[in-house]
Amino acid sequence: MSIKKINIVTVGGGTGSYTVLSGIKTIKNTSISAIVSMADNGGSTGDLRDELGVLPPGDVRQCLVALSEHTDIVRKLINYRFDNGKLSGHSFGNIFLAALEKVTGSFAKGVEIVSEILKVRGTVIPATNNKAELVAILKNGKKIYGQVEIDKTDFQKNPLKKIFYKNKVKLNPRAKEAVLSSDYIIIGPGNFYESIVPNLIIDGFTTAIKKTKGKVIFMMNLTNKHGHTGYWNASDYVQNIENYLNRKVDIILINNVSPSKAQIKRYQLKEGDGVLIKDDMQDDERVMRSALISHSFFNKEKSDARAQARSFIRHDSQKIAECVMKILK
Amino acid sequence: MSIKKINIVTVGGGTGSYTVLSGIKTIKNTSISAIVSMADNGGSTGDLRDELGVLPPGDVRQCLVALSEHTDIVRKLINYRFDNGKLSGHSFGNIFLAALEKVTGSFAKGVEIVSEILKVRGTVIPATNNKAELVAILKNGKKIYGQVEIDKTDFQKNPLKKIFYKNKVKLNPRAKEAVLSSDYIIIGPGNFYESIVPNLIIDGFTTAIKKTKGKVIFMMNLTNKHGHTGYWNASDYVQNIENYLNRKVDIILINNVSPSKAQIKRYQLKEGDGVLIKDDMQDDERVMRSALISHSFFNKEKSDARAQARSFIRHDSQKIAECVMKILK
Prior knowledge:
The structure is a homodimer.
Chain A: E1 6-12, H1 14-24, E2 30-36, H2 43-52, H3 58-67, H4 72-79, H5 92-104, H6 107-117, E3 123-126, E4 134-138, E5 143-145, H7 147-152, E6 160-165, H8 173-180, E7 184-187, H9 192-200, H10 205-211, E8 215-219, H11 234-245, E9 251-255, H12 261-271, E10 287-290, H13 305-309, H14 317-328
Parallel strand pairs in A: 1-2, 1-7, 2-3, 7-8, 8-9, 9-10
Antiparallel strand pairs in A: 4-5, 4-6
Helix pairs in contact in A: 1-3, 1-14, 3-4, 5-6, 8-10
């Protein structure tokens, strides 16, 4: 008799999804689908988007690597960033996905082929097959185009009115299917307006997540992002997420161990005060608290300095896995 | 009882080896090793050599694709050439091999990993692990550096004295082993001074090929190259090869069907007269004659225009395979 697998869907992009997926892929009898934001237009990814007209490969690449069961070398290869000549700054995996999109004529098909080559455990699903260009409109009427510019905009000085896509961006039917057949949906962690919200505002996402019988787990970030979510408390995240989702989340995972003083200092130097998220949800029974923080500094290839820079205070994959396992029981 | 496989080694590089390998990989009960010249310094390969300091991936890439048993899409991917932006002109496979050399620290290890990913039937062996820079010294004393410049030099106006490597270039131990344990060694077809000779002048090659009990098959080119081998007859090739090898070849395969008039005209426009090789070896019992020419024009991806340009009169893989099968019986 075959055991029915538990369907887990993650929603996010970039380093946050990488960390969650690296953890939960070790949980037995699960089937994992990673829904990944397609809004990135920065760095190597942005250059490839601009120069080759392909969909943004960066976040998908990180999820593929997280779920790959291939040798370490192949995983290193995918993250390898050229540091000389015309290829300088490009990660090999991004070039890989761009070339496959060109050869197959479809980003989704390219992701399938890379998944096979990388022996990916699970499925990585681009949130949309459409070109996804973010627009933020501020309360003062100004419009900000693209994730890179949104990243630089201080919404706390110039409050955000709405974030949306320039064109019609429809939920990938495979993402819809994954949400509808899920047992658990893990949203986050990740940069709120750049990795989380870009998934939630896709046409069809909220409809799917209202219909599903899957439980929605919100994995709280560890730190606030200055200018975007500075001084937010835990309840601010939950309220914002629920506004976007148009439904309640079922479980809220909050880290309950403080980062080291050195880590906090490093963050404050870069981000100013208001970087730590205050847990103000004592009375909310949906909250599960656990030690989720990593005590080791990110130990990636030197060439992936971009990833390194944003990863000083981060979740621990193994601790996430243990916490999720408790929920599944 | 397991059947002992017949060990076939090919020696060459580029399109010639691609064609032979595509054919002989269909022959059952054979173990194939492709020894590939490392002297290329042109095009995408040359740029990667210069900018990243890697070994030249181009010829190896073609052999890997020839022997790959993966889907057509993966083979197309490896040959895909970017046509926009900073990556323009680079074939994906070359970038792939360059990245793997960077990640593993060894070109040979990189080739192994790509071979696994591409499900390569057989082994592709770089002829050397050393940086291989060709030098041609002319009878007038002038020295020509690198394959690209050698390609442009007219040895028929300015006769060649000697072709050699700038530094010590040693035979890859795995190539030596392949030659020593071979049953058959197929040399050619290929550009004489650019794909064939660069293998034969590697330190250790002639010693290995004198020691082996394998039979040496010389697969004659279909056309002469203006300025290098213009007006050569079949016997000129054999004599030259044997001078380099310092031994006799055992079998000589000569095509005995004329190209179409249109094909000849196209070649003569580019190369002038003396392009067809006259078969002047009627009395030599080592010669096997067969229809080896392809009647279809090369049908590669548009993006691989470089390969297309050099492939108007070419061998037919299947006909090569049939001819080699007769020899193996």
